[in-house]
Write a structure and sequence with these properties.
With 781 residues, this protein is an alpha/beta fold. The chain is built from 28 helices and 19 strands. The strands form six sheets. The chain has a five-stranded mixed β-sheet, with helices on both faces. A four-stranded mixed β-sheet has the order 3-6-5-4. Helix 16 (383-408) packs parallel to helix 21. The longest helix has 32 residues, at 42-73.
């Protein structure tokens, strides 16, 4: 009998490779040891970390002074555009972070540089970096990276282990604010921004005298226009590199950059001699000179934008809108360097107005990320408009979530707005959405609030309030409604504000999945409730909290998981997995790990000594979604399984009465055990057809899952028997499995194969309805 074996899955270690565009870069997991000894005393740990933080502060101050000297010597637009072009641009379809496991020059460095550019008037210098390139790059990197390490000194005030949790949560939020960009895929961010802007389109225009949609059209178009101009610049340099002979090289340079002063034959000859008559050196000098024109790829005049938008927005309207989100040189002269990382002002004004009708920005990578935030900043300037917007935003989220579940669960009954009275508090509550499918109920509560700027900066009180509002409150609401339904096992009729009556037969519900859904993406903090508990944000236990997932993350999950059973399995197992496992990573990181193994990692799930790093797992999904946005066909990621298992699940969902029970059990089998099952079944079928079996009835048994969550799948091939006899044998198989007292079985599935009919992928399935699918959230129940 094949048995599911335990597998040790450890921290991911990215290795360099040479992937093709849009190819998934797969990496191994390796064990990483804590650099600090396990028995180091608490006070000594605090001392070590504080010293590291203090040393980083010294480096930070030193590198800051050094960095400012570059802005006095070089044109800041040249510095920003040079870094963007040479340090952050990547070939289409390739991801440096996925390939190497890190980014040498993270895009947020550009945001810091653009901010520092505004501390003084522009230095109109044509001096190129040349031999200073490496020094400048390392100065920028040391300045930015040392700032992150200064947060280590936050532990200085900790008096005990309990206080460390709150400090770590603050540090994580601060780190996310500094470095993490793009809270969803580009099309998702832009769609959400447009849809939210559309909620108050008329009111917005009446109040602010411009259209939010026009603003977003301009902002998002400029990312594309910048990319086009950067590619045009690169194409020009390629032509120069390909040219042969010094005259052709200079001709091509003058043709590509017509504003340069042309030189005559004698001057060309002299220049050629100074280059040592080396074509390579000549090209290098001209390419270095062409860098002086790089800033033009990141600079756009109003006429250019007007043409790029096909004349949809008037010239004066474009100027008026961009003026609202632009600084001028010297505007940030008094900015405190300690604030530019956690509250960078260019996030509210991402452009530099360099002259009339001309605007520069090196942070086009952020435009989709900033769209919604910038619209909401405009809205927040008027209290009446803000109040109207907040009201509509909440309804928008509920409508989007309802639509997503209706599209994703065609077999489900979906009810919204059920009003009920809590018998304990005698208060009325309203459930946002409940999804009823077979004996499962997904109870959903939506929260459309945003993460305030102080919370993003790690301000203790505001961070705590944000997490309570967006994660704890919907958890309590969902669990409260779950408890009410559990305590009232009958048909209940709920009134709604629309006047429709919602009927729920709670006696048919066996499994509850509470879920909070937010519009804001809280990253790894929202994905891991244990961090919130450890930080003392709440006194509630894990079983009193519901997982929190952002709308855009849920859209990704539901698009990838084609089957309804897979979606339910993920949402239910995700709650257990989050509770049992120590890990780092956000929702899509966690989901990518699920696709690898269905969360079927044996006893490792309960091993307290193991800490998983899922960070960067989401990179496995990026090729598909980024390619899709660019109109390129790339294979969609799927849950790892054999073709037979795939066919089995699809057929069950379409034709079986016990499809969800059967599928839920099948999804607990990792791919390697699926292969074993199929191999053993094939061997048994061969023996039966050849008459080599001693017994009249034969079957194979697969036990899968850890001891506390054991499932049994039986493969029963039969030949020449009637339906009644077949059913009798199946009942005997199920009964015999329960006689194995040493095994705690949560579910049994028998798959029957009529060898005369040769049905595929099965002839009959029988699932024991006495299931106990859900595991305790405690490590030691």
């Amino acid at each position: 009998m094949p048995k599911s074996r335990n597998r040790k899955i450890k921290k991911k270690n990215n290795k360099k490779s040479n992937p093709k565009p849009y190819e998934v870069v797969k990496s191994e997991y390796v064990q990483m040891r804590n650099p600090l000894p396990e028995d180091i005393p608490f006070d000594l740990r605090i001392e070590v970390l504080t010293k590291m933080g203090n040393d980083a502060t010294v480096t930070f101050e030193s590198e800051y002074k050094k960095l400012l000297t570059y802005f006095e010597e070089y044109d800041p637009l040249y510095l920003c555009s040079f870094c963007s072009y040479y340090f952050t641009m990547q070939p289409e379809g390739l991801d440096e972070e996925a390939i190497n496991g890190c980014i040498d020059f993270p895009p947020f460095f550009l945001e810091i540089l653009q901010c520092l550019s505004l501390k003084q008037q522009r230095c109109l210098s044509l001096k190129p970096l040349n031999h200073d390139i490496d020094n400048f790059k390392s100065t920028v990197s040391n300045f930015c990276r040392s700032q992150s390490s200064t947060n280590l000194s936050l532990v200085k005030g900790a008096k005990n282990e309990d206080e460390i949790g709150a400090i770590l949560l603050r540090a994580e939020m601060m780190g996310r604010t500094i470095a993490i960009r793009n809270w969803a895929y580009v099309s998702q961010m832009e769609n959400v921004a447009y849809e939210l802007a559309g909620l108050i389109e008329g009111e917005f225009f009446e109040t602010l005298a411009f259209r939010a949609k026009d603003f977003l059209d301009i902002l998002f178009a400029l990312a594309g226009l910048t990319e086009k101009k950067v590619n045009d610049h690169r194409a020009k340099t390629v032509l120069i590199v390909k040219a042969k002979g010094y005259n052709e090289i200079i001709d091509k340079y003058e043709e590509c950059f017509p504003t340069v002063e042309k030189i005559n034959k004698a001057e060309r000859e002299e220049f050629w001699i100074k280059c040592g008559k080396s074509a390579k050196r000549l090209k290098c000098l001209l390419l270095a000179h062409s860098d002086c024109f790089l800033y033009k790829a990141f600079t756009h005049n109003v006429s250019e934008i007007f043409d790029y938008l096909s004349g949809k927005i008037a010239h004066n309207e474009i100027s008026k809108i961009l003026d609202k989100v632009s600084y001028k040189f010297g505007d940030l002269a008094d900015i405190n360097k300690d604030f530019i990382f956690l509250d960078n002002p260019i996030h509210s004004k991402p452009f530099i107005k360099i002259e009339n009708h001309k605007y520069f920005s090196a942070i086009g990578h952020m435009f989709s990320h900033l769209g919604m935030d910038l619209v909401e900043r405009f809205i927040s300037t008027d209290n009446k408009l803000k109040t109207e917007y907040i009201s509509k935003k909440g309804k928008y989220l509920e409508s989007k979530v309802e639509g997503l579940f209706r599209t994703s669960f065609s077999k489900a009954q979906i009810l919204t707005g059920s009003i009920w009275k809590c018998p304990i508090t005698n208060k009325e509550f309203e459930n946002d959405i409940i999804v009823l499918i077979e004996d499962f109920a997904i109870i959903i509560e939506c929260k459309s609030g945003t993460v305030s700027s102080p919370a993003k900066r790690g301000a203790t009180d505001r961070l705590s309030k944000t997490l309570k509002d967006l994660i704890i409150a919907p958890s309590e609401q969902a669990i409260r409604f779950e408890n009410y339904l559990k305590q009232n096992k009958r048909i209940i009729e709920f009134k709604t504000k629309s006047g429709i009556k919602n009927k729920i037969d709670s006696s048919k519900i066996k499994y509850y999945i509470p879920l909070g859904i937010t519009l804001s993406n809280l990253g790894a903090i929202g994905c891991n409730l244990k961090k919130i508990i450890n930080a003392k944000i709440t006194s509630l236990k894990l079983e009193e909290l519901a997982p929190s997932i952002s709308l855009t993350d849920l859209e990704v999950i539901f698009e990838v998981l084609a089957l309804e059973s897979e979606k339910i399995h993920y949402l239910s197992r995700r709650r257990e997995f989050e509770a049992h496992l120590n890990f780092d990573g956000d929702e899509i990181d966690l989901f990518a790990f699920y696709l690898e193994n269905g969360f079927n990692i044996g006893e490792t799930e309960f091993d307290k000594s193991v800490h998983f790093s899922f960070t960067l797992n989401a990179k496995d999904l990026d090729p598909y979604f980024t390619a899709k946005e660019r109109g390129i066909q790339v294979k969609k990621p799927t849950l790892e399984k054999t073709k037979y298992w795939h066919d089995l699940l699809y057929t069950l969902e379409r034709h079986s009465k016990v499809w969800l029970t059967a599928s839920y059990i099948l999804l607990h089998v990792p791919k390697e055990d699926q292969i074993k099952f199929e191999k053993s079944l094939k061997e048994l079928v061969g023996r039966i057809l050849k008459g080599k079996c001693e017994l009249e009835h034969n079957w194979i048994i697969l036990y899968c899952g850890p001891e506390r969550r054991k499932y049994v799948i039986v493969g029963y091939p039969y030949l020449g028997i009637e339906k009644e006899e077949r059913n009798s044998i199946i009942n005997e198989i199920i009964a015999s499995l329960y006689e194995e007292k040493d095994i705690k079985i949560r579910g049994i599935l028998v798959i029957g194969y009529n060898l005369i009919k040769a049905d595929y992928p099965y002839s009959v399935v029988a699932a024991d309805l006495k299931t106990n699918f859900f595991d305790s959230l405690e490590l030691n129940p």
